[in-house]
Amino acid sequence: MDNMFDAADEPDVDRPPRLSVGDPELRKTRRLARECNTCIFKPCNPMHLTPGRLQQMVSEARGDAGYIICHSTLPYAGSPIPPSLCRGFADRYRTWQLQVMEHLWGFVDVDPPAPDTDPAPSAEFLGDTDHA
Question: Where in this protein does the record put region Disordered (predicted)?
């Protein structure tokens, strides 16, 4: 008989912990003040995403994930900016998760990383389904 539950529903599945976009001192949710230089929502595909990848990321974010973390603020990017909501996503979509964050805690807008710290597109990013 087929299992009707996804692996994500099983408690013993090894998954990395979800990155926090919460600012523990201000008790607000970090969101970029504007799109980063290589935002996945900018025209001309500056991150060189494979065809359909942006649509896949948006579908996941509009589902259970609720939001996209800006790739420029991910740990591998080497940015001094901690993980923050992607402004491109936040400006285009109003998920229930973003609405709850806004009503309970509010947002603190942080400047995106300087242009020289924006990560170059990488194979790791192109295949990453958990983060932007």
Answer: 1-20, 112-132
